[in-house]
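$ fold --in a.seq
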Amino acid sequence: MKKILLGLTVFLAAQMWAQTDVSLQIHHKLATEPFMLDATAENNLGDAFQATRLEYYISQFSIIHDGGIVTDVPLEILDLVNPGEETETIIPLGNFDVTEVESIRFYIGVQTPENNEDPTLWPEDHPLAPKSPSMHWGWAAGYRFIAYEGLSGDGFSQIFQMHGLGNDNYFRTQVDVETETVDGVLMLNITGDYTEGLRDIELSGGVISHGEAGAAKQVLENWRDYVFGNNVASINSSDKIEFKVFPNPASNETVHVQFDNTDEVERIEILNQLGQVVLTENVLQSTLDLNIPEAGVYFVNVYGKDNAFLAKTKLVVQ
């Protein structure tokens, strides 16, 4: 009897500490169609474009699983995503003690200090090694976090080039995942819609923006807020709070905003797509229940003491 109990205990312990290989799979899209270089698409302003180059870095992953547990992926896991080369990108994240995965967090770009180090020090096959065309801007600014180039305007006679970079623009996003097991690997599926990368950017006359501001920065913000769709919380790397908005998208009028810590939070504002404040709530407890009567796309802005902006996320009410 003791042997049976001991065997059962060992079995249960092994199950409790079972490790699972986990990979992130990004499906590349132009709206509903697979992403292809030179394919014709439109942004939300109705400006037609053809992408001739698209590359971006993602890094510093965290897996949210089993009821909100956060497990960080080793920092050395990062990737240079090139949608023009494949319809899906698979990034092995490692082996973890997870069962049910809800979402994935990651940053757009390259973390410091790696962002400002010598790219020639990396092995030739490493994502941060020198590339052609180059993904490294210079010593001070570091890598191009995103390089998005193409043709637009009448007869696609105009050129657009947006290279977003800068440590201050190292943005984090969190995305719900759909999971499946493929050959023993737990695959976390998300979709990138790269028409959304050009959201609200006037393309008809062409645009050249290289650096940390203007359209180059807006592309990075679009990656943070729109490209991966159902973002739970899009948070700048300088933010000092953690919060989530759910359900998102919301199919009814009640939306919940939940904070991990409210010590620095004073209030939230809900803005519509025109930037108009439709609702303001003081944060007196960790969870707020909001009633938003009309369908649409909104933004939840979080403020602290002395009106300091802390964080924001997109909210979709269907």
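$ fold --in b.seq
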Amino acid sequence: MFKIISTSKNARLGILKTRHGEVETPFFMPVATKLAVKLISPNDLEKIGLKSIISNAFILYLDPGLNTIKKAKGVHKFMNYNNVIFTDSGGFQMASKAFLESIDEKGVHFRSPIDNSKHFITPEKNMEIQQQLKSDIAMVLDYMPKFEDKRECIEESVKITYEWAKRCKKSHKDKNQLLFGITQGGTFTDLRKKSSELICSLDFDGYAIGGLGMGEGPDLLDKAVKNSVKFMPKNKPRYLMGIGSVRDIVRAIGNGVDIFDSCYVTRHSRHHVVFTKKGEIRINKQKFRNDFTPLDKNCKCDTCKRYTKAYIYHLIKINELTWKRLVTWHNLYFVKNLIDEVKKSIKEDKFEKFKKEFLKNYKVK
């Protein structure tokens, strides 16, 4: 299911096998909450070279609903995407007042923002939903606290997440669908250790680090990742949920993380942010009006091959929405290509040198 091919200090290069083929780690997944990456089609994903996405099981359960997915014979055929699809349980929606009613040890009481209907989701129900979706990798139902929550609340989330994880594993029957456990613990060193040890004792196919990217900042994030990874088995994939900043991705790979997802890349694309080897630029700045160079001179994406900063600036100023798609394409390609360079450095056992040079040159404005 997972095999490590090369290492460079703590960074790993591996192969993750699923029922929809193999994907090389480390890798980044665009968020396709409703089986759609904003402005990017499934065919575009193939062209960019992105071999995996993550969707949201609870959102799909609400709309289009399990009956529609079943008639389509699963999420892959529904969206015509034949690569790896993860489904998150819906734990992230617990942080939203639009969705959450209450949480107890039995499960989660959700309210649909679509029609205001109420839904009680237990670990057993959640596994039933994800198995009907036929995703390649399902995530357990976890209780994700907010960063600002008090320690007592985060302790409770560690306890409930563990109990729910046991119930998820017991009720999960699809042997061709991988099941990943999720750890919690906020930024507390002892709680991260405790949650990692508890979840890893259940022997899942992989392990995720949850509850981060919620405002803790890069230093606390880095510390929490280190305090989670060191208690995880080396022979299983490690997944840092919700992290898409390229600096954070490179640092986390150096800590031994294999898988990433986030809406950071596509969301920032729609807010004028462009990723380059020298850092982030704001393409709506007037200084780009007569800049007839690509977004990144070293980039080989379709946007950089065909269009200039001046043209994309022009599209923004005339409110022609094509610019959002062009920037999104570039940024997704940039992250995918960056991770390809990371893989090369791991194979050559030069990752630490690569990381040092990249972080030195990459500026966030």
